[in-house]
Fold these 2 entries.
Entry 1:
Amino acid sequence: VTKPIFLLTDFGLEDTYVGQMKAVLVTRAPLSPQIDLTHSIPPQDVRGGARAIDDTLAHLPRSAVILAVVDPGVGTDRRPLIVTVGDLAGVGPDNGVLTPLLRLPGARAHAIDPQRAGAAALSSTFHGRDLFAPAAAGLATGSSPAELGEPVDDPVVLPPEPGPRRTSTGWTGRVVSVDRFGNLITNLRRDHLSDLPRNAAVELPTADSVPLVRTYGEAAAGELIALVGSGGFVEVACNGGSAAEITGLGVGDAIELRL
Amino acid sequence: VTKPIFLLTDFGLEDTYVGQMKAVLVTRAPLSPQIDLTHSIPPQDVRGGARAIDDTLAHLPRSAVILAVVDPGVGTDRRPLIVTVGDLAGVGPDNGVLTPLLRLPGARAHAIDPQRAGAAALSSTFHGRDLFAPAAAGLATGSSPAELGEPVDDPVVLPPEPGPRRTSTGWTGRVVSVDRFGNLITNLRRDHLSDLPRNAAVELPTADSVPLVRTYGEAAAGELIALVGSGGFVEVACNGGSAAEITGLGVGDAIELRL
Amino acid sequence: VTKPIFLLTDFGLEDTYVGQMKAVLVTRAPLSPQIDLTHSIPPQDVRGGARAIDDTLAHLPRSAVILAVVDPGVGTDRRPLIVTVGDLAGVGPDNGVLTPLLRLPGARAHAIDPQRAGAAALSSTFHGRDLFAPAAAGLATGSSPAELGEPVDDPVVLPPEPGPRRTSTGWTGRVVSVDRFGNLITNLRRDHLSDLPRNAAVELPTADSVPLVRTYGEAAAGELIALVGSGGFVEVACNGGSAAEITGLGVGDAIELRL
């Protein structure tokens, strides 16, 4: 049994850090496909790392290992963690980055024992390479979490992000991320739209009122629209352009859903 | 039989969109190598996506799947397409991005049937993940196009890009792309150079006259040169520097080949 | 026997150059994992390419192929090279990029014969695709260097980089690279710290004196620190921020280790 390993870090691709981790992985789990979720998490943005796992969780194979390294506390006494849910495992620092796995029913956590995980010389600055990659390779090639560490019952779980607020006219959410296309992705979910009147619209802090449509192509070129994106969240987009550029809005700005 | 899958998108690597597609691919075609052609096509640049396929087509294995997602019309009634030429298959929206495959002799097109391709819940904004990846995985693991859809005889083919114009003194082309090295890649091809006199040169709109050489290293450091690049097109380069920066030229600028 | 192939280039990921090389590799070595070390070496920075190999060498499997293409002299008479050390092989131009392999005990060099390596039509601008990838695939699938070329005894080896200088108060090094986190990585090594008094510190040209600690998390948020990083070199970092941004320092700047 060889599980695919999904990599998620804040290392970027400029340096060789990801390459060094992959070298360790292919040495210890030579048959495991290595798949990049992303390495563009903003440096040390643990919440951003958790959100990226959330985005992809529904699409992973049932049997897989997620290696998630966003690790501002590397070398301190924060624990190294394995989270397992059935045949799915997550490996990373115990700082909340694995929260989406820990919230799944039946999730169990283990603190990695460096020696049992086969970590060699442990640097104090790069556990991704020296500790988490060996543990991930072990899990991918058939080791159980109990072979690699000891159960813990108090892993760090991030508090839920503040959700949209109910207002007299609808819901007020905020922009949570901006993607490469300049789409403004909010924390308003599909179910905030239920019982939606036909003339429902999204209001931007710029006072623009934006029609809710089903897909990008329903708007004229250059027109601002809102729709439910592929992750199930309302986003503001622009057909053929960047909504972020056109509106000047970004992460944290309020978006009003007017029912 | 498991074919490698070559990925080409305008998603960039900042977000998890590519990771989500790859998760679907490895779930359904676990033994297929996944190889990135590029994810840096400018957003919604269908022509740029087609050009990238053109660049790489000659170097692909004979048996392979190209998954090409540059899809401004996602969720509208543009058809999802499979193009096959022998053991080579392309999967993507029917908007012209697969033009280089459609121009090959013997190319056949099918419109993908989401149900037969095994698409689960189909979002209206991310067919790359929900529809094209399942179809590509199907083709990579032995499904025939006829199992995944119905033949169509009118797939969208982009018109040829405007080529160089013959002038009294030679050919006038234009810059088509600029690569990471700052090389100005034109639409002038090797055959525009035939019967080339010994003193042939390339003239830039900046009035610089640039010698035609065989390879980058033939020029002094900092010198502008022109040569036939690895794709068979004339490019203007600078030994040890960026021709784009030095000349201030970019995509669309005219380049004169003086015979 | 199929060895993994580690790729290192200055091609970036914007263009399809890396994709074209990988297409050749998967055609000729379909079972070899392809692993990116990095493609972000600054254009034509041969020394930077060698340094990236140095960073990763200790973490590679014992049996592997490194395909290293930083090749300003492509198409000139610089030789194409294979370097082997046991089951580890490097392939690239004979310009010093393979220096870290050539410095290993028992290293042997061969000049690649294009015909024997199975290079097809050889462009004069892209030997990464046309010559080095076929040679790397050959080595990955069991060919010996002697089958692909002729021994040479004078491969190009870069001179060692200038090391730190001993001063009356300690050592003066310099910043060699800056990573994505803004850490200033120097050429001061762990052994320059031996016999370190308890109050040792690192002095920046900005006159800041920075405490030496063991790991990033030992500093208060926003505080500048120095520590031995994962490659064994002293680096200046900032907990939760970018040392490069805060200090305004970059590659080449002097860093003083005061014992």
Entry 2:
Amino acid sequence: MTVGDLSEAALVARIQQHLPPPPAWMTVGIGDDAAVVEPVRNRLEVLTVDALVETVHFDRAFTPPSAIGHRALAVNLSDLAAMGATPRAALLSLAMPRTLPLADFDGIIEGLATAAARHRIHLAGGNLTATPGPLTIDVAVTGAVKPRRALQRGGARAGDELYLSGTIGAAAAALQMLKAGTPSAIAGRYLYPEPRLRLGSLLATNRAASACIDLSDGLADAVRRIAGASGVGAVIDEAAIPIDADARDWFARSSPDPVAAALTGGDDYELLFAVRPRTRRRLAAAIRHGGVPITRIGVCTADPALLLRSEAGDRPLPPGYSHFR
Amino acid sequence: MTVGDLSEAALVARIQQHLPPPPAWMTVGIGDDAAVVEPVRNRLEVLTVDALVETVHFDRAFTPPSAIGHRALAVNLSDLAAMGATPRAALLSLAMPRTLPLADFDGIIEGLATAAARHRIHLAGGNLTATPGPLTIDVAVTGAVKPRRALQRGGARAGDELYLSGTIGAAAAALQMLKAGTPSAIAGRYLYPEPRLRLGSLLATNRAASACIDLSDGLADAVRRIAGASGVGAVIDEAAIPIDADARDWFARSSPDPVAAALTGGDDYELLFAVRPRTRRRLAAAIRHGGVPITRIGVCTADPALLLRSEAGDRPLPPGYSHFR
């Protein structure tokens, strides 16, 4: 059976089987022209959309359907985390080849629904269409954040310290290992990334971060974007960068510049954020309850240069990765 | 020049050139991890998403780029109209072949931005990606509606009268003429459909409609969906159906059953709504200020049958069109 054997209504019914009952604040859910939701009192609303395209963002040869569904939602949740927002509602737009096996469709929905339940975001609606091209999944999400608490990219000043959650490089290394067919203990870091929602929310609530971004396109790209939006430069301490140990081993064998490979590898979905030194104590709650280790990796500078500093001297930060070009 | 020659940042900058300054309620607009907007006081929020896929929903051979952009937004605005909602914010997710001419990209954005300005909806963010497949445009929109005023599909009761805005068949006939290369006075009805936002808003504000839906998949499909959601049947008066005159001529020559062709042709984006006979006077404002003629075409019945009634007798309503199968 493929999705082309079923009507749109039958496919929507299969999606609904994976969903919990709609919350009370969702006045109208799936099945009408649009969904209707009650906004959260005294909160601003956060909106974002992200797409995964087969062969561009994932390869069905080694990405199980549940991972496709998980990632399609997680990349959006990571954007909410980077704004300090709490997830609310999601819209799913699926463009599917008619030959997509029904079991794969079910797996995608299962992966998305499991991640949604875990992070308390509710599917409010969506769109299903056939496509003669690759499987394309667009997810749009809404979240809520207190007024004047949203974390933006442009708030860093010279002297602010740069912090990173978790470790980097694992997703990019895992993707290379998956492509090469090499068994890998870190495959899950690529397949099932964990959005840092609790950390983002704590940073926002406590006004602990002056700027924040998620690492969808790698650390080097994230540093460049925070610096660009804030009008500062940055010096990153190479020895301080928390590169995942398995990724470090892999890149040491596979890459002429292992550090650059880890810095430019995408799909990590950690948070990079800036902290004013004199308000560093506001980080306490994020450190204790953020659910992920955080590491100081550098500092923002008045000089606009973006530098990687090591015992061997300074070198320019590697360029970021462009999904488009 | 094609879109593949530019970076994502350069393409985003081209989009911003077509946009007005963000409104005051948009605290964070394009360029951060997500947008931040102030909800409307004492309003519920309406959310929907719709996708256009090249070759499935449009053909670049006869659909100019501005029409692609216009339609991608208009189909979503039509869903807001069907809920009685006022447009607020839009998210645009574009998956583009790298070979898409830059002029086409600009045209798509221009068409979308022009429709957005006209209907006062503001682009809050989006996503750009390359695809090895067809041009795929996903637009998600938010709107606002007063509590307990949202128009739903499921509120019709036996005895409620069914009304239709505008005329039907023109978009489907125009699409056939465009495909055939036949010059057509009604090409714009397919290329630049007009969402019935004012009518939807008036129906909601005045509680004039007990149920409402837009005609994206044709009148027969819309009647079927309102009846199904409401648990009623319907009798449609064939002579009363306002079929566009040019479409009627076209279908008389091209189709063995011209009425069925008009009833099942999609892309009209008119509104079908049910009205309780004893509150019919609430329609006054919608008739006077809705911006489009409305016509009574039938009645909801306790008998679950869906019938098309004419002097020749009753026949079953034609089946709807499925975009998917």
